[in-house]
Amino acid sequence: MVQRGTGWFEFWSWVAAAETAAWRLKWISIPVMFVTLWFGGKLYRSIRRQPERFCGLTYARGGLVASATVALLIALLIGVTVPARLHQRELAKEAAHRADYYTILVAATEYRQRYQTYPADVALLRQRISDPYGTLAAALNNIDPRGYDPHGEIAEVTPQKSRGLRGAVVRNASLSTPTDDAAPTGLAFTWFELRMPGEDKILGTDDDWIGRDGMFMRYSDIAKGGVGRSFGALKQ
Q1: What is the structure's pLDDT at 153?
Q2: pLDDT tens by residue, 28-39
Q3: Is residue 218 within 8 Å of residue 209, measured between CB atoms?
Q4: What residue segments make up the domains of the chain, in order of their start?
Q5: Which residue in 64, 65, 77 sits closest to 25, CA to CA?
Q6: N or C: which end of the chain has fewer CB within 10 A?
């Protein structure tokens, strides 16, 4: 409450302050709680067994009840914050994945502006895009290069029917050439998908993250028919 400086007369402000204090002091308060209950129970049993030698049985009982109440309150205050803290941890992990994706997206966009195509492999970003602060290198170290999947369009004209064609036959192509630093003749990578492993650290499972065209979603949400359905066909 002193740190916040506000809410002195609000009940929920005191509850929030108590939750914060209990969580921050959990590694101290929990051991102290058990030690206090153990000594308090031992003292109370001694007084109860020999009332002729000791006085203050009522006070001992009250102290033991007070200690147990405080212990229960600490456990309760810690317990009610666990779901919210787990949710915050998930949000932090998601934010880290998003930061890596958007860092790579910015670098890939710069690559496309310079070479008129997205890179055939993420290794080209490390080689050809400047990274003065090391953020791109950190993002690339956090992903599996196999999760990068560039796509493009290539025009194919059949020689025997070239005169009768009013335009080129266009087909989709998805190529990955780690050693080439440019797309083949007639091919330009116009978009890419970036798949990042989730909690299990294994690429190709339902907890993966998928990024395309600035959108970043969990693969499980896409598979359920979320907004990410517009991504198109996603490879397992």
Answers
A1: 66
A2: 888 888 888 888
A3: yes
A4: 11-90, 101-231
A5: 77
A6: C
Strands 215-218 and 209-212: antiparallel
Instruction: Answer whether 160's CB lies under 8 Å from 169's CB.
Output: no
The overall pTM is greater than 0.70: no
Tokens of 216: 């970043």
Q: Exposure pattern of 154-164 as b/e (b: 16+ CB <10 Å)?
A: beeeeeeeeee
Structure tokens that stand for 146 in this block: 């196999």
Summarised one tens digit per residue, pLDDT across range 162-177 is 444 333 333 444 444 4
| Residue for token pair 């209950």 | 37
Say whether 114 sits in a helix, a strand or coil. helix
Q: Say if CB 121 and CB 177 are below 8 A apart.
A: yes
- Select from 61, 27, 62 the least CA-distant residue to 45: 61
Q: What is the mean pLDDT of each run of 10 residues along the chain (236 residues)?
A: 76 83 84 86 85 80 86 86 86 91 94 92 91 92 91 56 39 44 62 88 85 86 56 44
Q: In angstroms, rounded to a whole number, what is the distance separating the alpha carbons of residues 116 and 111? A: 8
Nearest CA-CA partner of 84 in 33, 15, 164: 15
Q: List helix spans (H) across 50-122.
A: 57-115
Q: Which residue has the tokens 């910015």?
A: 106
Q: Is 130:225 a contact under the CB 8 Å cutoff? A: no
Beta strand extents in the chain (DSSP E only): 148-156, 169-173, 187-196, 209-212, 215-218
